Each structure stands twice: as C-alpha cells, then as structure tokens.
Amino acid sequence: MKTDTKSIKIKMKMMMNKIGLVYLLADIFLIVISLFMGGLWLINTQVAFISSMLVIFASFFSYKGMVKKRLEDGDIPKERELLDKIDDKFELFEDEKQIKADEISKKEFVKLYKEERKKRGGFKMTLANLFKSKRGIFNPIRLLAYAFLVIAMLVLIRQELFLAIPFMVGITAIPLASLILGIIVNYWSNKS
Fold it and tell me: Quick check: helix, strand or coil at residue 107?
C-alpha cells in the first residue's frame, strides 16, 4: 500500500510538472504576441494571466481541501465493483432485471427514465451538493484571488492602461491551455 501511495505521488508530481510546462509555454506565447502588438498588450496580458493563475490555483487548493475534509468525515460513496462501473456506470439497472433498449417501447423508456431520475434526487440533490461544496466555493483564498483579479483590472483602468481584448486574451490563455492539454492527454492515453 505504501508503494502505491508513493507511485501515485510520483505520477502526480510528473503531471504537475507537465501542466506547469504547458502554462509556461502559454505565457511565453502571450509574451511573443504582446511584443508584436505593443507594450500595453504586454501589461494587460500579463496582469490577466497572473490573476487567472492565482484564481485557478486558489480554486484547486480550496476544492482539494474540501475533498480531503469530506474523506476525513467519511462522506465517501460506496465502492462498486469494477465490472458494474463499466457495464452500468449510471446505476440504471441496479436491483432490477436488465432490459435491452430494443425490447421496450418509447412510453416504457420514458417511464423508466423518470423513475431513475427520481432516484437520483434531481434538483434537490443539486442544491444539497451546492451546500456541501460551499466550503470550496467560498474559501477565503479563492475569494482573495478573485479580489486580486478585480483590483488588478481596476488599477489598470485607473492608470488608463486597460485594454479589454488583451486582458481577455490573457485570462483565456489558461483555460485554452488546459483544454489543449486535456485533448493531448486524452489522445495519448487512447493511443497507448
């Protein structure tokens, strides 16, 4: 068990290094673009990029703390067998005989769907999950990161340095880099 934890930590550290490299490359890309567009572009993209990074990291650590707290409190969903996860990942056929889709009519399917949706809890479960995650949403570190973003933008406006387009480019660089990283990781994991 100890070696499993150690290997997981090593893999996580390697992944974090790769993520850090992708974000560094995104920032270098922003700097190169800004050098062609002018000094105000450089200031706006870098302020937005740094603010966005602070928000991302603060959100990550606040949700990490929330998950850790839930694990410590024993709020862990029951583990299902691996085969059940693959065959019935949405638990539609648990405690019932399996019905093939071509054997039921549309009316029966709608009825079955509504019953399963009631089991899931619908809107009430969504609200319950929201209240459970309030610790991650309203974490002081995360709120400070958002405050930094707003204050940085207000300072740029006050100093008459703010340009909306480069600021938005700087903010969207992190989500776009994350999306590209996700696509690359998904591609390589499916290929091997």
Answer: helix
Of 19, 9, 8, 2, the residue nearest 185 (C-alpha)? 19
Tokens of 2: 């100890």
For every residue of 3-32, which 3-state class applies, written as one string? HHHHHHHHHHHHHHHHHHHHHHHHHHHHHH
Q: What is the pLDDT of residues 69-91, one digit of tens each?
A: 777 776 665 555 554 555 555 55
What b/e sequence results for 143-173 when a residue is b if at least 16 CB atoms lie within 10 Å of its CB, and e otherwise? eebeebbeebbeebeeeeebbeebbebbbeb
Find out whether 142 and 51 touch, Cβ atoms under 8 Å: no
The model's pLDDT over 115-142, given as tens digits with 9 standing for 90+, comes to: 766 666 655 556 565 556 666 667 788 8
pTM over cut 0.70: no
In three-state secondary structure terms, 94 is coil
